[in-house]
Amino acid sequence: MTMSDATATKPTVFPSAVIGDHIPVVDIRKALEEALVPRLLAAPPVSWKRRSITGTLGDEDIKRHLGHVMDGAFAKTLNEFEPSITVLFKGVTYETITHDEVFQQAIEEQFGNEQANQLLREWNTVAEQGNPPIRR
């Protein structure tokens, strides 16, 4: 069997993710190993065969060599990848404060409901009087 025959099998399906999903590196490694073992059994690398006394490799030999390669490849990876996004609001206007629901939610998350209401109430009071608020 040639390498092209070994890779002509069905495509490998790795764990899929949607933004916000958490897939542990262990699961990704396991899926990758499961995909590679059949191909490596069909056509082991020549460099691995050279390390064998008999010039042939059994299933356990292939898995052991692959384990060493995977250990090296995954040694520097994080066990978990948890990206975060920070939103900064610049150039905040009265319209942003009074009409932007995303901004209002961010204010509530940052300061709590009571302080957010107080802040919004102050801005509304000043606007009702027709005077722009003083920036400090």
Descriptive keywords:
136 residues, 2 domains, 0% strand, disordered N terminus
Short note summarizing the structure:
With 136 residues, the chain is mainly α.
Walk me through this protein's architecture.
The chain is an all-alpha fold. It has two domains: 3-74, no CATH class; 94-129, no CATH class. The protein is built from seven helices and no strands. The chain has helices at 3-7, 25-42, 46-50, 59-74, 94-99, 101-111, 113-129. The termini are far apart.
Unreliable stretches, pLDDT < 50, 5 or more residues? 1-7
> Into how many domains do the coordinates divide?
2
Relative helix content: 55-70%
Specify Rg, calculated over alpha carbons. Answer: 29 Å
Helix/strand order, N-terminal first: HHHHHHH
Number of strands: 0
End-to-end Cα distance: 76 Å
Count helical runs: 7
- Helices and strands: which structural class? mainly alpha
Largest sheet: none
Give the integer mean of the pLDDT values.
74
Question: What does the overall shape look like?
Answer: rod-shaped
Share of β-strand residues: under 5%
SSE diagram, text form:
Elements: H1 3-7, H2 25-42, H3 46-50, H4 59-74, H5 94-99, H6 101-111, H7 113-129
